[in-house]
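Quick illustration, no need to memorize.
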Amino acid sequence: MKKHFKIIAILFLLGVSQTACKKDFLEVIPKGEQVAVTTADYDLLLNSYSLYNYLNGGGFQEEMVMGDDVAAEAGLFTTASPQPQLTRVFQWADVVYEPKDLPLDLQAYLGSMYTCNKVINEVLTSESGTDDQKKSLQAEAMADRAFLNFILINSYGKPYLASSAATDPGWPIITTANIAATGFKRNTVQEMYDFIIKDLTAAIAVLPAQSVSPSRISRAGAEALLGKVYVFMGKYSEALPLLTAAFGDVAAATTPARLYDYNVELAPGGSFLPIGFYGPNGPGNNYQDFTESVLAKIFYCGSYNGNGFGNDGLVLDPKTAALYGSSDLRLQLYAANNPDGSSNPAGRLRKYAVQYANFGLGLSELYLLSAECKARTNDLAGATTDVETLRKSRMPAADASVPSATAADQTALIKFIIDERTREFAMEGFRWFDMRRLSVDPLFTGAIYTHTLYDATNGNTVYTLKQPDRLTMQLPPFYIAANPGMENNP
């Protein structure tokens, strides 16, 4: 049979008609026809740029604006696009979206979900491939689907709490690649997590230790992701063996992921030099740099250059800036100037050297997740070793040690590790998800989250996050209109 493979995609734009709003919400994905026959065709589907590279929409843009690690300069931020959604997100407003709004990230996730489900449902009956090849591709698509569901449940469902997860509304479990499907309803948070765990457990049993490409998920990536899922459920004992297994699979790879040593790369002759308009020439300025990647999912987070889009005007919140020691080389990813090169009068910092961030899972997060699990299960020495391994690659070794009093105190060490997560991932969207999970953690009870909008002429405005409702985003009205049985969040 003559091989044929065709993908036709028609993107829905923001100006969707009211008539379209009555259609099923899966119609907002890249819509059209995908004809795949051979196993190689399905392999090509998983090579899709859109499954790992969210440079044209999607990723953590909104989450980046919602984390309390950011503040904003009014003169730049309030003129960025799209507005007014960004302002509302920054304010943690009750209602963010207009009736016709289609968030770029949600469009991207649903488009990727369609591809994953198509491979999962069809690849086992494809032509020409071996059974092992087909099962491996199906497992890869299941792991990718689990990643998408993990992001969706941590955006539109409440933070996981064992006592209420069985009744808290979550997100629909979508297993079809049929764009004509209708009548979606929300599964519970518990059902979503159970489904994610099921997908990842099945995938881990089949996935190869090494992927065919850094952009494709391997067993190590699935193990690390499942470990992270358990961390977000507060199941640290279940998470730790998976994280340990991921380390083992990473180390056994032909070209293993490794931490960049900023002490070397930012020294004379280092690969991050010379420092240009966008700062050091590190992985944040090269979306094809997978050196530290365990699970590669790249999004564009670099609207710090005056292009008027997304996050222009965002600066590092001063409370977050105070978490860094003066010798922390991660500070070289920031600049105390505006996108036009002029100095910020107050000396506030913008993250100009990370245009592209990995919102999948990098080796640095693997160390921090492992450290947190060890600290929470009272292996304080192991936790200290893990976090210090990362810190030694980000600052001079003499300054990388965890203070002895902190290393000997379980609660203090856990909080130190959480602060290290903020130092490592500030202004990249991770903080929002940590804020959510820590909101139901007794160790962090009573935390108050604020955003400051700095205005040189009219004074500053401080917004305070109203918990717990605003830790969960409302579904866009478009999806509610398309599926009347799908209730919205408060």
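The chain has one domain: 6-262+358-482.
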